[in-house]
Amino acid sequence: MELERARDRAIESHRATIDEAKGMLTHCDDEMVELYAQVSELMLTKQWLLTDEIAWVVKLVHQSPELEKVVADLVNCVNVVGVNGGIKQGFQAAKGSARSFEEVSGYDEGAKDALNAAIKAFDDFHISVLGKVADLVDKPLSVIKQRSELPIVKEDFET
To answer: Which residues of 47-71 are buried (b: 16+ CB within 10 A; e: fewer)?
Structure first.
């Protein structure tokens, strides 16, 4: 009788150990599925980041009012400097005139200074919308993808 009870206790202990091991295996399986999902999500994120996300950021930069203004200013200043050079050459070719080239319509004495300022502004300009892209870092990929598929609107550039 004592032997039988010891055997039953041993069987019960083994069953408890087996149940515990089964629980641990189930837990490990669940963790493995979760980790696989996370790795898959990271792979999709990497793929998407290297394709669509970079294109979206470039599109935002391309359409940013800061870039538009600084490029327009630069182009305008380059044009004025070019016009000034043409005016100077034309004036020197027609030296018989009593007027100075500063009096010629279209000549801008400060054109080179404006061009230098425009070049500096181009070198120093800041694109505010990049901060909005950086704000998406903690968001899930689904939110980022959804945002990037929306049309770019004025509010994207407002801080």
So the answer is: ebeeeebeebbeebeeebebbeebe
Calculate Rg over the CA atoms of the chain: 36
- Which one-letter amino acid corresponds to residue 85? G
Q: How far is CA 51 from CA 48, 128, 135, 152, in A?
A: 5, 22, 19, 18
What predicted TM-score, i.e. pTM, was given to this entire model?
0.44
Share of the chain above pLDDT 90, in %: 15
For residue 79, the number of C-alpha atoms closer than 13 Å in the C-beta half-sphere is 7
